[in-house]
Design goal:
There is one protein chain. The strands form 3 sheets. The protein has an 8-stranded mixed beta sheet, with helices on both faces. By secondary structure, it is of the alpha+beta class. It has 2 domains: 13-170 and 226-315, BirA Bifunctional Protein, domain 2 (2-Layer Sandwich); 328-414, Anticodon-binding domain (Rossmann fold). The longest helix has 17 residues, at 16-32. 37% of the residues are buried. It has helices at 16-32, 46-53, 58-63, 82-91, 136-152, 171-183, 191-199, 210-216, 228-243, 288-291, 306-315, 335-350, 364-374, 384-389, 407-414, and strands at residues 36-37, 43-45, 66-68, 74-77, 101-110, 122-131, 159-164, 248-250, 262-269, 280-284, 299-305, 328-332, 355-357, 378-382, 392-396, 401-405.
Length: 416
């Protein structure tokens, strides 16, 4: 028997109410903030991620699904959401639109990593990007949008973690101090961090292994090494978040895992500890558009793991609305009635009434049990007597009452 590949999950009908609930709420809050939907292909030129995300990252070196197609092109399954949106921004001339361009998306992400609760090799994200404005007010807007979404679906006790990692002007000085600090302790680092020391020293702060965590506690802080412009941006952001009434913690270890981040980085975390516990994570990427071949263009965004949000909804005992079943099931007795039932179900659907046909080979009692299990509001029964008289039996499944009625009367009730 075939099984789904490791790190993937089937989204069964019983699970769909969570997905529809989250998608409708995310779409609603994004559009209230002025964001519009964008969708990008499931695969991209591999160079987009190498150039945009950066060599030396775990994502590029260990986690992408990369392959050569029949034409000889190297392609990569979508490994994160921001770089493809920035590619689309450039390709379609969105720099000519009023800035910032505010975009949101629902997307599948593919990463070859160890599957864990709420994070699979194929997982799904809701993301937003605001491209074309470097004002820290936009940073605050993006963080607020994530917070309002989570609050709106009933999640509680999560926290906002923020940090500033500077920009390409002031960060080299900070990285020099960071490397000086770790150089004296290099022998205590895990094997991965020994590689990071050479290739991506900022990620040393992000390691969750016990020895490395202890070392990072005394490491220099990036916010103590900001240039004047980055310091002003950082101070204004904190002021805007406070003005919005959003409580936040400064996390000196928060750096995010991709090379394109500058200045603001943030996460929104649930009230559980874990190396991969963040529900929402993002930050500013003011150099990414230029790295992809465009003019210097600021940008900021976040990605939200849908599976992780659903996991937290369940852990906090938050119920979501059930999806409506068909409004009516058309039941029948005999072959002649079956033909009329098929025609009637089709007619009802064409008039905007959701209808399903009763299963074959069941008694009327069995068909009524089936209608009840589907959650239908009504059942229509057609038998020989109804065929002769030109009437129908309409049963109210909630009240357990039924009546004989004409087709016109039935439609009027169902459309009421």
């Amino acid at each position: 028997m075939y099984r789904g590949p490791r790190g993937t999950a089937d989204l069964l009908p019983s699970e769909q109410k969570f997905w529809r609930y989250l998608e409708s709420n995310a779409e609603n809050v994004a559009e209230r903030f002025g964001y519009r939907r964008i969708d990008t292909p499931v695969f991209e030129d591999s160079g987009l991620f190498v150039r945009g995300v950066g060599q030396g990252t775990d994502l590029v070196e260990k986690e992408t699904y990369t392959f050569q197609d029949r034409g000889g092109d190297m392609l990569t399954l979508r490994a994160e959401g921001t770089a493809p949106v920035c590619r689309a921004y450039l390709e379609h001339g969105m720099h000519n639109l009023v800035q910032p361009v505010r975009l949101y998306y629902f997307t599948s992400i593919y990463r070859y990593e160890r599957p864990q609760a709420g994070r699979y090799r194929e997982h799904h994200q809701f993301g937003i990007e605001a491209i074309g404005d470097g004002n820290p007010a936009v940073d605050a807007e993006v963080i607020e949008l994530g917070w309002r979404f989570l609050s709106g679906i009933g999640l509680q006790k999560f926290t906002i973690q923020v940090n500033s990692i500077g920009d390409f002007n002031c960060r080299p000085t900070y990285l020099g101090e960071l490397k000086d600090y770790y150089a004296k302790r290099r022998g205590l680092l895990c094997d991965d961090c020994k590689v990071r020391f050479e290739r991506n020293p900022l990620r040393l702060l992000d390691c969750k292994k016990e020895n490395c965590l202890a070392l990072s506690a005394e490491a220099p802080h990036s916010i103590d090494h900001l240039c004047g412009e980055c310091q002003e941006h950082w101070d204004r952001l904190k002021g805007y978040l406070s003005a919005l009434g959003l409580l936040f913690n400064i996390d000196h270890h928060l750096v995010r895992g991709l090379n394109y981040y500058t200045r603001t980085v943030f996460e929104i975390q649930p009230p559980v500890e874990g190396s991969q516990s963040a529900i929402i994570g993002g930050g500013r990427y003011d150099g990414l558009i230029q790295e992809l071949g465009g003019r210097p263009t600021p940008g900021i965004g976040f990605g939200m793991g849908i599976e992780r949000v659903i996991l937290n909804l369940r852990e906090q005992g938050i119920s979501v609305p059930d999806q409506d079943g068909p409004k009516v099931m058309v039941s029948y007795i005999g072959d002649a009635a079956c033909k009329e039932a098929i025609k009637l179900a089709s007619q009802l659907r064409q008039e905007g009434i959701s209808a399903t046909l009763a299963p074959s080979g069941k008694s009327i009692k069995g068909q009524m049990r089936h209608a009840f299990s589907l959650g239908t509001a009504y059942a229509i029964i057609i038998g020989d007597n109804e065929l002769q008289k030109g009437t129908l039996i309409l049963r109210d499944m909630g009240k357990g009452e039924q009546q004989e009625a004409t087709l016109a009367q039935v439609k009027q009730i169902l459309q009421g």
